[in-house]
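Researcher: Here's a chain I'd like modeled. Treat it as a single chain, no partners, no ligands.
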Amino acid sequence: MEVSVVIPNYNGIAFLDSVLASLEGQTLKNFEVIFVDNGSSDGSCSFVAGNYPWVHIIELPENYGFCKAVNEGIKASRAPYVLLLNNDTIVLPNSIFWLRMGLY
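Model: Modeled as a single isolated chain. Structure tokens:
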């Protein structure tokens, strides 16, 4: 595992397919995705679990905010590099490769 991608979320189900599909299409495959949900009520966790089973989900019981969500994701990461992504981000296919090579 070279890179951990941490995605904090709160009721962002409308964005999740785009960000996770863009991560699924990465050229570098040696990374993990940690999805940290801040107590969403829109079915975000069920959507991710049902459509992207390779994503590690951390469910917080309520909305603790961005900082706590990111910190929980970093604590759970297993890689030497961490990439923080907002849930409404779409990454290009080589983004994690460029990050890993120090070009991003």
